[in-house]
Amino acid sequence: MHRTVPSLPLAPSVKVKLINAGFQVASDLTDMRPLQLCKEAGISQEEAVEVLQMLRDDGQPHQQRAATESLTALDLLHQEQALGSIVTFCSALDDALGGGLPVGKTTEICGAPGVGKTQLCMQLAVDVQIPVCFGGLGGKALYIDTEGSFLVQRVADMAEAAVQHCTLLAEDTEQRQALEELTVEKILSNIFLVRCHDYVELLAEVYLLPDFLSEHPEVRLIVIDSIAFPFRHDFEDLSQRTRLLNGLAQQLIQLATQHSVAVVLTNQMTTRVSNGQSKLVPALGESWGHAATQRLILHWEGLRRLASLYKSPSQMEATIQYQITVQGFRDAPDEPRPTPATSAVSSPSGNHSKHPRMEDRS
Amino acid sequence: MVILREGVCPGINEEFIKALQSEDIKTGVALVAVRRVLLAQYTAFPVSGADLYEELLSSTAILSTGNPSLDKLLDSGLYTGEITELAGSPGSGKSQVCFSVAVNISHQLKQTVFYIDTKGGMCANRLLQMLQSKTPNMEEQMEALQKIKVLRVFDVFSLLACLQNLRSNGLQKASVGGGSVKALMVDSVSAVLSSMLGGKQNEGMSLLMQVAGELKMIAKDFNIAVLVTNHVTKDGNGHLKAGLGQSWSHAPRTRVLLQRIEGAETSSLRTATLTKSSRQACHLVEGFDLCHWSEERRTSISGKRKLEERSKP
């Protein structure tokens, strides 16, 4: 154990007392008994027991390996290929995302009201359950609803459309067998719904998620719809909000990596005024932009709905069109090819389109 | 010399003498010997300027980043023994630059790279894409991928545990296996520290200084180039500056700010501004394209001309 005492996860007052008593390295503490430590450092009995317990847990082989184990990029590549991704049933979006929403990363979906964020989340909660033989993940979903916009009837419609889609695709006996088990009731029963009313409940829920995921290892998707709502109204201290959000983001990416789940967060938009011009930007501040691994911005352009991939570790920026139908989130009928774009929210009728649009000029 | 007895000097009492006697220390000579050993182990000895210069020449290496514009900005590349920082707003390309540098070091220079990922942004697929554009040979790609070692930690205490472990035995183990470790990247340092700073918390600064100290010690003791990424905040005039405040600003030797170019034709163009450097004048700006990282290298004849063309924003 080569940990120095200041770097241990203990309360600051306890650490100050330990350092003043002369303990500099964690190995100085390992052979101490609680009563001895209590007397030498001047801390209470419970604190001494806590310190020694923490050191013993830290010294466990699996904990040490977690901190020191390094994968080579080659191992990581194999792991990534094994994890797969969640399709969205909109082929243009799937291509832009490189196969679908990646498992093991956090994705943020930002958009103005009514553009389709909750629809996409509900579609993903259904799509994650598509059986493995059809190319899906066959997993369950956890839906944390903070706005109250989850509608069971809509999910039932999407589930039915998904089952019909799979029925059309079924070719061999394995697929037909899996199809028999795939019913609307089963799909609905595999979505765990949690309703959080304010940010304290949301933080508590995220804190309890590791235990939940250990008990339900087949969960492959966590949706938080939306993460902006509880943090935007009635929060006086903005710097505390930034700190809480950063801590939350780190907890979520830790969950995503350790339990191999895809985490989807929904964010709202706010207006930023600069140089006399106003533009729509994602809410929750500048530093929240660093939190999610991937960022998808949904926006309107006239009557068309567009999705732009704004930030991604492995995909190029792209803008695609989609539509919301009775069956759910689908491709737009006339323009299935993805068109690259510079910035999604810079100007509404931008000069970044490759072909001239007659209706914009008028 | 003097036999140790109670009252010989302040601080020696009965209990202390008994403890020393059980270790077979009976006279003052032994204590002085102990003191000499402790001094030799823990003090810093003065070194002459000439020796220091010799040591610098022999041990410092400059690692090229693979992109000529960035190399020009960094005075020909990343220096070992120092911390270099990349700051930028979301989507400005910090992680992509880190990937490109890691791929260049592992493939071109054939050295091992340690990559500490705190945000989940490490995507091995992207590394493979970059390697595929450099060489079509599968074996070379796999070999280069094996030289990049990834560690994933998500909070500051795990980061400190990881760094301390690297310092004590991790780095030596990695260099024994073949291929010395020449670079360490931490992406990003602000993700784990920013939730600990500010408000009523009194531990944040201490943890920040500990992380800075560990990174500097690793850089110096093992002759490694450390590259960290940071987020940006706005200062009083609305200009972008790197985050984590004044205290962190002393940790990296060189700081570069990355920005998108507004209204550019291709979305992968970026500008890099040198905001702190001990070797070059500050506020140098270079433009580069994230997609074509080292395209200039392929056409060696018209290399210079292409570089000038690309520098124009």
From TrEMBL, chain A:
Subcellular location, principal: cytoplasm
MF terms (GO), sorted A to Z: ATP binding; ATP-dependent DNA damage sensor activity; crossover junction DNA endonuclease activity; four-way junction DNA binding
Keyword Cytoplasm: yes
Annotated Low complexity bias: 340-349
Keyword list, A-Z: ATP-binding, Cytoplasm, DNA damage, DNA recombination, DNA repair, DNA-binding, Mitochondrion, Nucleotide-binding, Nucleus, Phosphoprotein
Cellular localization per UniProt: Cytoplasm, Perinuclear region; Mitochondrion; Nucleus
One of the GO biological process terms: reciprocal meiotic recombination
Segments for region (Disordered): 330-362
Family: Belongs to the RecA family. RAD51 subfamily.
Protein name per the record: DNA repair protein RAD51 homolog 3
Species annotation: Sinocyclocheilus grahami (Dianchi golden-line fish)
TrEMBL record, chain B:
One GO CC term, this protein: Rad51B-Rad51C-Rad51D-XRCC2 complex
Localization: Nucleus
GO biological process: DNA strand invasion; double-strand break repair via homologous recombination; reciprocal meiotic recombination; telomere maintenance
GO molecular function, one term: ATP-dependent DNA damage sensor activity
Residue ranges of every copy of the RecA family profile domain listed in the record: 59-232
Family: Belongs to the RecA family. RAD51 subfamily.
Record text on subunit structure and interactions: Part of the BCDX2 complex consisting of RAD51B, RAD51C, RAD51D and XRCC2; the complex has a ring-like structure arranged into a flat disc around a central channel. In the absence of DNA, the BCDX2 subcomplex XRCC2:RAD51D formed a multimeric ring structure; in the presence of single-stranded DNA it formed a filamentous structure with the ssDNA. Interacts with SWSAP1 and ZSWIM7; involved in homologous recombination repair. Interacts with BLM; required for stimulation of BLM activity by the BCDX2 subcomplex XRCC2:RAD51D.
Task of the protein: Involved in the homologous recombination repair (HRR) pathway of double-stranded DNA breaks arising during DNA replication or induced by DNA-damaging agents. Bind to single-stranded DNA (ssDNA) and has DNA-dependent ATPase activity. Part of the RAD51 paralog protein complex BCDX2 which acts in the BRCA1-BRCA2-dependent HR pathway. Upon DNA damage, BCDX2 acts downstream of BRCA2 recruitment and upstream of RAD51 recruitment. BCDX2 binds predominantly to the intersection of the four duplex arms of the Holliday junction and to junction of replication forks.
Full protein name: DNA repair protein RAD51 homolog 4
